[in-house]
Every structure is written in C-alpha cells, then in structure tokens.
C-alpha cells in the first residue's frame, strides 16, 4: 500500500512541478558570446545505445560548453570506459544509483527512483548546471526532477534538453512520456513521433 | 527466368562471393537463441556454402559461448567473446554484420558502411526495438528477420540492393542548442 502512496506522491510532485514550470514559462535568455562566455553542461549517460547517442551529441558541442559533468549509473562500466576516452581537464564524472534496471517491475522502479531522487537532488543543487542534456535512461528522471526544482525555485535558470533515442520510432520511452510536457526542448529522431507529439522538435536524424 | 533476372542473380552471387567474414553482435544484451542458431551445424554449413570463412560471435551477457570445434575443412572458423570495450574493429573487419535490434549496434554497423542483417528477438515481440529494424528496413538500409527464419534469410537475402546509410547530423543539434542558450 505504502509503495502505491509513494508512487502517488511522486506523480503528484511531478504534476505540481510541471504546473509551476509552465506558469514560470521560459526564462529570459541572456545574449552570450562563444569566445568569451561559457555554460556548464550536465549530460546524463544511459548505457549501451543511450551512451553512444549522448557521446555523439556532446562531442558535437563547442568548447564554450564548459565545465562538463557526466552523470552515469554506478553499475555502468561500459559508459565509464567510453567517457574516459573523451575526458578533458574541465570534465567530471558523477556516479548515481540506478533508478530503473531494464525489465525491473514498475513498483520496485518507483522505490529505486525515490532513492535515486534523494541522492541526485543535492548533487544537481551543488553543480547548478546551465544545461541538462538527457536522452531517456531511467537515470535522467531524478536529474530532470532536480533541474526543474532549480528552475521553479528560482535558484538557477537551468535549461533542460531531452533527445529521445533513435530506437523510439512510434512511441516515446517511459522517461520521454514523463518529461514530454515538462520540457521545452524535446527532440525526437523520427518524423512519425513528431506527428504524434506536436510539442516535440524534429530537426533530422542526429546520430 | 528473363535475362535481366539471371543477370541479377549472377550479380548477387558475385557480390556474396566476396563476403568472407561474418560478425555477430548482441551488444550488451542476452540473446542466446541467436548465438545458438548461428553456431548450429546447419547454419555454419550454410555460411560456408555462402563463402564465409570466419565467424566472430559477440555474445554480450549471454550464457552460451560456443567453442570452435574441429569440423570439416570447409566450416568457417569460429571466434567468440562476451563483452569488449569497443567492437568497432570487429565490425570494420566484417563483410556482413548480424546484429540484435539495439539502436547502438545497428548505428555502429550501418555507420561503418556494412551490410546488416538484424535478427529480432522474438521472445521480446511487441518490444519497441522491432520498430527500429522495421523502419530502417522499409527505407532499404538493412534487412531483418527473426531467429526462426535466420537460415532462410541468410540463404536468400540480397544485400546488393541495400541503400547506403547517410550519417546523422549532431552539429544541427549543436547549432540549435547554441541558439536556445543565446550564443551568437
């Protein structure tokens, strides 16, 4: 019973945040100059295909995205190795508990998500990233939740960008469905999805 | 058979005669039914008939690791491993890649300009990953089949009609993000 209650609380919190977020609207974006100004970037790595896609997005970004924080699930050795190859002096890897393993049931997912949120919120509040970039693994839910909190509390003007994975052709992932209404910059990789979800952006295949 | 039909068939034989190395990848997943199907005597025999001399199996988190046994001389040599930090070298060395339906593995193989046959895990039918293989096959970038039709597909698929896969454009995303953040 209490599991359901926690779940309801979580959904309630997300709904409340979304209302506040929609009311707050997109904050004023300052004019920036690539040669002088920098923005801090926080990228959430998934595993397997998610990591591959995220790496190609991050490596396409200019040097003005600095420092760069990479969030990975503590059990994900593969992403760790791939990240070490592109690591520079201005980047940092942060390990967080997984919120949902593949095939994990929805009920236990809620519990581990709560655990991940409790761990993640302080981390995001400490880093105060200008941009959060994520593409669908369960890990990105608590990170985006913390990012939304930063915005609605006015502590930091964090822009959250979601890029749905190339493997989603006709339907959004669970993370995508949860974040679709909350995020301004929501990208999909297939035109079919753009028709179904009009708020999403399609600017061609990115990977 | 018409002349053009015969020509097409000859061309197909010719194209496939150059395919010697096969790489099978299941990414970070477990897909033992595919590994079992590939390493069966029947499939190996068919592969040798098609001209394959080397088969490399990347078995992921699977439990089966088929060993190379002394078979008849014509049977392709079998190499097998579970996980490796990068499988790109093996993809590059291959003439044909048989992949599970994961986006990462498919993109890696297509990105290297390889002929790709995606084998969908029928145990996960209804899984969204089937959609990706279907969509890419519809656009002519790859072929796909299930484990049960693997043998027939290997024998009959024509890879000469596959369309080259254009690379993605992550720089478009970079430009967009710069705009959103006010960078001029």
From TrEMBL, chain A:
A biological process from GO: dolichol-linked oligosaccharide biosynthetic process
GO molecular function, a single term: N-acetylglucosaminyldiphosphodolichol N-acetylglucosaminyltransferase activity
Membrane topology per record: Single-pass membrane protein
Keyword check for Isomerase: no
SUPFAM superfamilies on file: UDP-Glycosyltransferase/glycogen phosphorylase
Membrane among keywords: yes
TM spans (from-to): 6-24
Localization, UniProt: Endoplasmic reticulum membrane
Pfam families with a match to the protein in the record: Alg14
Major subcellular site: endoplasmic reticulum
InterPro entries in UniProt: Oligosacch_biosynth_Alg14 (IPR013969)
Taxonomy, superkingdom: Eukaryota
Protein keywords: Endoplasmic reticulum, Membrane, Transmembrane, Transmembrane helix
Any one cellular-component term (Gene Ontology): UDP-N-acetylglucosamine transferase complex
NCBIfam families in the record: PssD
Family: Belongs to the ALG14 family.
Protein name, per record: UDP-N-acetylglucosamine transferase subunit ALG14
Organism of origin: Elysia chlorotica
From TrEMBL, chain B:
Keyword Transmembrane helix belongs to the record: no
GO CC term, one of those recorded: endoplasmic reticulum
Entries under InterPro entries matching the protein: Alg13-like, Glyco_trans_28_C
Main subcellular localisation: endoplasmic reticulum
One MF annotation (Gene Ontology) recorded for this entry: N-acetylglucosaminyldiphosphodolichol N-acetylglucosaminyltransferase activity
Top EC category: transferase
E.C. no: 2.4.1.141
Domain Glycosyl transferase family 28 C-terminal: start-end pairs: 22-170
GO BP terms in the entry: dolichol-linked oligosaccharide biosynthetic process
One of the Pfam families matching this protein, by short name: Glyco_tran_28_C
Compartments reported by the entry: Endoplasmic reticulum
Keywords annotated in UniProt: Endoplasmic reticulum, Glycosyltransferase, Transferase
Similarity comment: Belongs to the glycosyltransferase 28 family.
Protein's name according to its UniProt entry: UDP-N-acetylglucosamine transferase subunit ALG13
Organism: Elysia chlorotica
């Amino acid at each position: 019973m209490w599991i359901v209650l926690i779940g309801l609380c979580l959904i309630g919190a997300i709904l409340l945040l979304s209302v506040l977020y929609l009311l707050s609207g997109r904050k004023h974006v300052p004019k920036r100059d690539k040669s002088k100004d920098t923005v801090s970037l926080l990228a959430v790595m998934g595993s397997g295909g998610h990591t591959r896609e995220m790496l190609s997005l991050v490596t396409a970004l200019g040097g003005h995205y600095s420092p760069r924080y990479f969030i990975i699930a503590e059990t994900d050795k593969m992403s760790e190795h791939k990240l070490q190859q592109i690591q520079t002096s201005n980047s940092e890897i942060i390990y967080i508990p997984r919120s949902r393993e593949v095939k994990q049931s929805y009920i236990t997912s809620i519990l581990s998500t709560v655990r991940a949120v409790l761990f993640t919120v302080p981390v995001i509040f400490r880093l105060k990233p200008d941009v959060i970039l994520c593409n669908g693994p369960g890990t990105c839910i608590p990170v985006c939740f913390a990012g939304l909190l930063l915005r609605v509390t006015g502590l930091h003007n964090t822009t959250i960008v979601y890029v749905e994975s190339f493997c989603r052709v006709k339907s959004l992932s669970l993370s995508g469905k949860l974040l679709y209404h909350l995020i301004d910059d929501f990208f999909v990789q297939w035109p079919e999805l753009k028709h179904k979800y009009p708020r999403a952006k399609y600017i061609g295949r990115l990977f | 058979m018409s002349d053009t039909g015969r020509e097409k068939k000859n061309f197909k034989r010719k194209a496939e005669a150059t395919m010697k190395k096969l790489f099978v990848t299941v990414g970070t997943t477990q897909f033992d039914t595919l590994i079992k199907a590939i390493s069966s005597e029947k499939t190996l025999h068919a592969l040798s008939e098609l001209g394959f001399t080397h088969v490399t199996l990347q078995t992921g988190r699977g439990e089966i690791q088929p060993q190379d046994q002394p078979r008849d001389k014509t049977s392709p040599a079998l190499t097998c491993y579970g996980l490796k930090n990068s499988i790109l070298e093996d993809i590059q060395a291959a003439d044909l890649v048989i992949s599970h339906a994961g986006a990462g593995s498919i993109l890696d193989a297509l990105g290297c300009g390889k002929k790709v046959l995606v084998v969908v895990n029928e145990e996960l039918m209804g899984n969204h990953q089937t959609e990706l293989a279907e969509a890419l096959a519809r656009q002519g970038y790859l072929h796909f089949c299930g484990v049960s039709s693997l043998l027939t597909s290997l024998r009959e698929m024509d890879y000469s009609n596959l369309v080259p896969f254009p690379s993605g454009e992550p720089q478009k995303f970079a430009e967009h993000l710069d705009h959103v953040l006010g960078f001029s």
